Amino acid sequence: QVQLVQSGGGLVQTGGSLRLSCAASIYDSGLYAMGWFRQAPGQEREFVASISWSGDSTKYADSVKGRFTISKNNDKTTMYLQMNNVKSADTAVYYCNAGPWPLIPTRGYWGQGTQVTVAS
């Protein structure tokens, strides 16, 4: 069992920066990868970025490569998504996810979601 609590998000101007956080409470012995998905109105949930349990491997959607950075703190209980040079297309509800590697949207545990709105 995993509980995920998200923080961060909000309104940011185009070209600005924002950081999302996801704190994990893990109640079993699983070694979970963690990551972020996002869902814009009327669209399916899509993959954004993920990081392996060890933190040695990361993956990014092509749309965010070079702009977003995923990381973990040293005890692997908190994950971050640093969002730089944001665009209007980044507007969505962002969801934290934990599960087996690689992460897919049909499995794992989910955070409560946080709105990110990029204003032009």
Describe what you observe in this structure.
- This protein is mostly beta strands and 120 residues long.
- The chain contains no helices and eleven strands.
- It has strands at 2-8, 10-13, 18-26, 33-39, 46-51, 58-60, 68-72, 78-83, 92-99, 109-110, 114-119.
- The strands form two sheets. Strands 2, 4, 5, 6, 9, 10 and 11 form a seven-stranded mixed beta sheet that branches. Strands 1-3-8-7 form a four-stranded antiparallel beta sheet, with no helix packed on it.
- A hairpin with a 6-residue loop joins strand 4 and strand 5.
- It is globular.
- The mean pLDDT is 94.
Summary keywords:
mainly beta, 52% strand, single chain, four-stranded antiparallel β-sheet, 0% helix, seven-stranded mixed β-sheet, 120 residues
Overall 3D form? globular
In percent, how helical is the residue content? under 10%
Which blocks of ≥5 consecutive residues have pLDDT under 50?
none
* Oligomer type: single chain
Mean pLDDT: 94
Strand content: over 45%
Major β-sheet profile: 7 strands, mixed
* Backbone structural class: mainly beta
- The N- to C-terminal Cα distance equals 40 Å
Query: What is the total tally of β strands?
Result: 11
CA gyration radius, whole angstroms: 13 Å
What letter string, H or E per element, gives the SSE order? EEEEEEEEEEE
Annotation field: number of helices? 0
